[in-house]
Amino acid sequence: MAVTEEYLRLCARIDGALGGAQEPGPAGALGLATEAVEWCRERLPAGHPELAKALIRQAEAAFHAGTVVDAEGRATWWFAVCMEEALEVRRSVFGAVSEPVSAAWGILASYHVRKGEWAAAAAPLREQIRVLEALRGPGHRDVAVVVRQLADMHRQLGEHDEAATHYRRCLAIWEHHPLHQDAVLSWFGWGLLCEIRGDLVEAREAFGRTAAIVRAHRGEADLGLALPFVQMGRIAMRQGELDDGVRLYRDALSVQRVFLGEEHPQIGSTWAELSLATAVGRPAEALDASRGALRADGRWLASDAAARLDANGVRERLSTLLGHADHHLALVLGPALDGRPGAGPLEEAAAVAAWRRRLPGLLLDHHWPDGSPEHDELVGHRRLILARQATQRQHGATVTNADQGQTHKPGEAWIGNGMLMRELRQELARTEAALRNRRVPESRAYALPEPEPEPEPEPEPERGASPPPPSPSLEPDASSPSPSPSPSPSPEPEPGASLSSSPEPGVPRPRQPDAPGSTVPSFPQPDALRRNLSPRECFVEVLRLGGAQGRYAALVVEPSGRRIAAVGLGPAPAVEAAALEARIALEGIGRATAFRDARPPGGPPGGSPDAVRALSRLVMDPLRPYLDGGRHVFMVLDGPLLHIPLGALPADPGPGPGQGSVPGPGRGQDPWLARLSISYLTGMDDLARGPHPADGQRPGTGPDVVVAAPDFDLVAGESRGSGELFGELAGTAAEGRSIAERLPGAVLLTGDRALKARMREIRSPRILHMATHGYAFVDRYEPTVDALAEAVRQRGHPFHASRFDRLRSDPDMASGMALAGANTWLRHDDPGVEAETGLLTAADVAGLDLTGTDLVVLSACDTGVGAVGATGGHASLRAAFLRAGARTVVASLWKVPDDETRRLMLRFYAYLLAGRGKAKALHLAQLDAYRAGAAPLSWGAFVCYGDPGPLRPAGPG
């Protein structure tokens, strides 16, 4: 019986789905493939060849779906079960020694190899070799191909003797077929094995044979030459033959440029490997090669290649690019940090450090400039998708469960299903495809300027012709009058003496644009930063370089922009251990929120003032000589230092920056905020790019919004809960009312009006103030959190802990703020449709419209705390609000006390509305609390991120 037209159409749908050309995609193809197998079983005679083909299609679909089944009491891949049956069918039809059976063994082996299951691939490979030997003879080149695959498998498993036996066998066959393409792979694999075993001479000879075969088979230049050249260069370096090694690496680069182009990521990787190989013996060559790697990375980023990466590709590429940047910074800064002469160009180091900070955004935003129509369109689509996906996860189901008709409690209405998610994915794909077809701005992502080409001789002017006009230059003309120096700011009044407006450090002046007619640098340079610093301001960027045993360093632009200095801060393990202990001492042991405990596992039971002083000596004291004369410091931090308010650290007595430090309690133990005001930036870009991105936008047009004292136990029916994780905050109600009264026309959302749905309706407020509970799952001490989960279970809410556990495990819910109905949702009751989950998470913030928003104040616990090593940069609420468009965010770094926070916030707004800059207003409010004798716990947690200047005038609303 022959197959029908109906069956052929079904097979075409399966093939299209497996190829990704049509719905339902590879995962949905499994159902179609199973249908095809059943069709063959029902309509075709037993053992029909078409059944084997259908089973192989089913195996391919099962491979993509990653499905595991229970076969005879053991879990196994479904693709293996399908292939075993397909082999039985083919054996019965064609015989055990036949071409179709050989092909089936090869397919089964390839599935295991693609899964990384090298050991499981060995048996089918041996069976395929046995069949091919019987069909073609033991010396046939098809046998050599499979023997090489078996050798590669043993090499991957570390079974070197077995691998060597199989490599020797296949190489002996290739002596009779020297120009076969697989001979290249065999010699290359043999070279890798020899290198692993330490036989460098044999390895180099094998790689040389690889290159010779490529030349003979494909010509003098071929991409296949690059890899053996790299391997031979690596071996030459290990043998101490530096000249030969450098030559081989450069030969590889020449081949890669021809066949891959300057934008391919492999170019940067080869440059980086050359830099690593020459770092010890030839530092100058290493630095030059590192520059080549960064330029190649920049060209790749300036192309549209990043737009084609999936999430895993973004993470892998980001790790590679950060590694290249860290290596370059280590080369430049190494001598200075080790106290040796010969520090590299610090101007260059500062530019690379700024590029390093921007890498996550460059990869995730596809390099479109902020404010461009392309950027706004893409970000708008991404915010929509993030918000909907986050809501789906928060409502407690997966697409699979929804498609299977799982029911939910009231208030958990499933707002998305498989069809909606496909629609959203298609929408995003269309948007990104449109963006890729538009022109990518040139040179947007270069970390370093390209080397200057050799100047060409200018032609002699014709007699009588006018001389050509001078070329525009970025350098000032020595014959022109020098610009007048910036006027010194007026002397700063005594903090707390007056609330009137006056010029002050930390308030940005109008930014100076680049010279007319010049090309705006794609990345900010230190000269641009200097132009935007007043004589009493300085800039410090703290960098964590290296892996677990790395070290911390700082780049400092001194007051008046005199110079850039490199300062070593010590080994990373020591700095980070001190940071954790200092945070415990500042916050107080036992004050961890319900959702966080910063105590390191195995650490001491509590911090002490000595721990705070120790961190100050490690981080701030080395910077002291370079801050002399400054009154305001712009800080960019890295690693766990992101969670330390440096202004709260004690400054040892003695001369220091800011002559005439403010007197206060314990003169010898004054905190650094008594000597300097400190604000925080996300990178050098915030100051060096010229006008702030928000300066080109109109101010927020919506009314100011104050959210305070939500009803955490809001329910849609009659019953109310009590004693939940989020307790009542009496101070937030008074705080919200007082602040709303000071902001004309402000919208106050409290009690049952502080709903998540109302937050989604916010449109471009100038000020958004939120006073409620905050939480963050970061640096948590697991035994403490586990004990809390157990306590939750014992409160009589059996499902409560399951949602608490979801907060811990879901990255999109790992940090957030509690709104109306938060407790209700956590205990699986119904808070009402508009309350949704009652939690405003970092993922939800991506969906808010904060275009033109000048200030966001997160008056809650842990709103500045987040995952340090996230792909997209620092993953916290404060980072989410900055990315959503807020110009400045004030956030907290630990659990803040209710009443003291209310007093601090009211004082902050008094200074702010009197005309002080946002950072300075916070600084003065904290200084008032310190001078009144309050402990750092009461005032030290809050820090200011972003633009420190005064509020912009309210826009038309």
Describe this structure in words.
The protein is of the alpha/beta class. It is 47% helix and 9% strand. It is built from 33 helices and 16 strands. The strands form 4 sheets. A 6-stranded mixed β-sheet has the order 9-8-10-14-15-16, sandwiched between helices. Strand 3 and strand 4 form a beta hairpin. The longest helix has 27 residues. The protein starts with a helix and ends in an 11-residue tail after the last strand.
The N- and C-terminal alpha carbons lie at a distance of 76 Å
Write down the oligomeric state. single chain
**Over all CA atoms, what is the radius of gyration?**
33 Å
Tell me the total number of β-strands: 16
Strand order of the largest sheet: 9-8-10-14-15-16
Shape: globular
- Which percent range describes the beta-strand content? 5-15%
Q: Extract low-pLDDT stretches.
A: 366-379, 385-446, 454-522, 591-606, 654-667, 690-696
Provide the fold topology.
Elements: H1 5-18, H2 25-43, H3 49-65, E1 68-71, E2 74-77, H4 78-94, H5 99-114, H6 118-136, H7 141-156, H8 160-174, H9 181-196, H10 200-218, H11 226-238, H12 242-260, H13 265-278, H14 283-302, H15 311-337, H16 346-364, H17 373-394, H18 399-403, H19 418-436, H20 526-531, E3 537-545, E4 551-557, E5 564-571, H21 572-587, H22 609-619, E6 632-636, E7 677-680, H23 685-688, E8 705-710, H24 730-742, E9 747-751, H25 756-760, E10 767-771, E11 774-776, H26 782-793, H27 800-809, E12 815-818, H28 822-826, E13 839-841, H29 842-845, E14 855-859, H30 877-883, E15 888-892, H31 898-913, H32 918-931, H33 936-939, E16 942-946
Parallel strand pairs: 3-6, 6-7, 8-9, 8-10, 10-14, 14-15
Antiparallel strand pairs: 1-2, 3-4, 4-5, 11-12, 12-13, 15-16
Helix pairs in contact: 1-2, 1-3, 2-3, 3-4, 4-5, 5-6, 6-7, 7-8, 7-9, 8-9, 9-10, 10-11, 11-12, 11-13, 12-13, 13-14, 14-15, 15-16, 17-19, 21-22, 24-31, 26-27, 31-32
